[in-house]
Amino acid sequence: MSKQNRRDFLKKATVTTAAVAAATTVGAPAVHAKKTYTWRMVTTWPPHFPVLGEGADKMAEWIEKMSGGRLKIQVYGGGELVPPLQTFDAVSQGMVEMGHGASYYWAGKSPATQFFAAVPFGMNAQQMNAWLYSGGGLELWEDLYAPFNLKPMPAGNTGVQMGGWFNREINSVKDFKGLKMRIPGLGGKLLAKAGGTAVLSAGGEIYTNLERGVIDATEWVGPYHDYLMGFYKVAKYYYYPGWHEPGTVLETFVNKKAWDSLPKDLQEIITTAAARSNIWMLSEFEAKNNTYLQKLINEHGVKLKKFPDEVVTTMRGYAREVLEEVGNKDKQSKKIYEHYLKFQKNVRAWAKISEIAYAKITS
User: What are the binding positions for substrate in this chain (predicted)?
Assistant: First the structure.
């Protein structure tokens, strides 16, 4: 082989080797990108339930789109795969990868879970988001769920709720005595202080329980949902304000082993989809609640009632007692309770000269 031919051969070989190396480098992520994951999500809501179940459906849809189909999630409503209130255990034990619900349903696992859903006379939706995203609340929530092999994140909010539907008038705190009411979380403990009985049941069971007299009253969410649920057909009085749930956070949670199996970009996609769902749910409720409140009043003759000041004042006192009791159950509950109160005090000081002051001059 001549010197010229040898130089040409070596030149081509070098180019070919470089091309192969480049192809290998480019090909590695391409092969990785083709790996797909198929997950299941169980929820506490009936299948495709307006706003709440829809939020879970949309989150799964957004995750699939953002991941280019690499992560597909099949959503199951309460009872389709597991009973609604067994969602937490199903994800914790690895039966499925994801869950969707509200953390106060899991008070039996730890009393502190309730601080991440709703606190009577506590923070509203905007303030809860501030605490979770920017005030250290989410890190406390993650620590609380870690022993259960779960990673939680906010995925919705109802905003300030209504006080509930009653088949008797509430003229004083005495009218709560003997009352059986569907009410979860810390609000149920306040009812017990007033002599009532709190009943925990899934959303799909409430109408029937109210119709059959299993319960005398129920809280749920607000006018839009309550209209769709048809509560006006089986209850006489519609009370406000919802002191028991001023800004209820909805959650999604992921089995930690499943979470750790994902590449970082898919983890970020789930987090982003949950945050989008958080905003979408609150927006849906805010956009539609007044429209449906007027329908309830004008089309169905619903009697809108305001809780008497004496009732609100007494229940606020009960709230302080209950929070002290729950917040001192154990070391972790105390840490979360104190952190919540400190942030609430700080954010309310600002709210008095911002949101509250503005509301007064525009009402």
Answer: 161, 182, 219, 245
Output the pTM of the full model. Answer: 0.88
CA angle 119/84/221 to nearest 5° reads 40
Please tell me whether 245 is known to bind a ligand. Answer: yes
Average pLDDT for the chain: 91
Read off the tokens for 22. Answer: 């480049």
Count of beta carbons in the 10 Å neighbourhood of residue 306: 12
Q: Is 219 flagged in the annotation as binding? A: yes
Domain chopping of the chain, boundaries:
37-157+247-287
Annotated binding-site residue? 93: no
**CATH for the 37-157+247-287 domain, from 3.40.190.170, 3.40.50.280, 3.60.10.10, 3.90.950.10:** 3.40.190.170
pLDDT tens column, 218-240: 999 999 999 999 999 999 999 99
Contact 127, 114 (CB under 8 A): no
Q: Look up residue 248 and give its DSSP letter.
A: P
